[in-house]
Q: What sequence folds into this?
């Protein structure tokens, strides 16, 4: 059943709304030993510190504001180097069937310090980094489709189409870079443009001399 409700304007940010809501809940349930579950907006450091100061627990995802891409890379580097073991997460299977592995991950403990009502609060935060196998497969399939699309578009670039001018080296490289960026595969594909000169004899008209026709293509 609802323990606290709040009506707020739609143009207000969510971050400062959690502390008043938690305060209202504590008036009914008390302080200490409770777990508050929220979204990434609840992960603001001030909110986490407020919960920890009361001896309670929280569970919420950290956005890139709280845990940057660089910090995530540093935490995952031992996994890629093979020095960090992963804990398997399984879902119970049907009767007489083995459990299904659905994810893998590891945790790290981080010491945090913040101020709550002019008092310093120190606590240990346990951070879980989890890789969902289903989500990873979906992401891989999406990436494969983007790679196929990018390759097809790159192969089409040098083909001269009716009503469109022929692209030369600088224009081809610029267009190729735009395609790779658009498909989100930068750093995953390499491309180059090579000029080829072809020559052929053109038959003479009337008594004129034969001509050599040279064409540049990529």
A:
């Amino acid at each position: 059943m609802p323990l606290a409700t709040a009506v707020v304007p739609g143009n207000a940010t969510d971050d400062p709304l959690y502390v008043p809501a938690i305060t209202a809940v504590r008036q009914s349930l008390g302080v200490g030993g409770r777990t508050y579950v929220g979204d990434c907006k609840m992960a603001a450091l001030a909110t986490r510190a407020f919960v920890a100061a009361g001896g309670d627990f929280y569970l919420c995802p950290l956005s890139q504001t709280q845990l940057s891409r660089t910090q995530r890379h540093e935490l995952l580097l031992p996994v890629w180097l093979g020095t960090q073991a992963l804990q398997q997460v399984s879902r119970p299977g049907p009767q007489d069937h083995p459990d299904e592995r659905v994810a893998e991950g590891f945790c790290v403990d981080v010491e945090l310090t913040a101020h709550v009502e002019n008092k310093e609060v120190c606590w240990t935060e346990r951070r879980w980094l989890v890789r969902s196998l289903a989500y990873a497969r979906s992401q891989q399939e999406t990436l494969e489709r983007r790679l196929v699309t990018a390759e097809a578009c790159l192969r089409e670039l040098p083909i001269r189409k009716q009503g469109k001018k022929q692209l030369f080296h600088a224009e081809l490289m610029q267009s190729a870079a735009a395609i790779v960026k658009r498909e989100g595969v930068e750093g995953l594909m390499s491309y180059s443009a090579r000029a080829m000169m072809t020559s052929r004899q053109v038959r003479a008209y009337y008594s004129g001399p034969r001509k050599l026709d040279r064409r540049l293509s990529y």
User: Anything to note?
Assistant: Residues 133-156 form the longest helix (24 residues). Strands lie at 35-37, 57-59, 87-91, 100-116, 119-132, 196-202, 211-217. The helical segments are 18-29, 45-53, 69-81, 133-156, 169-182.
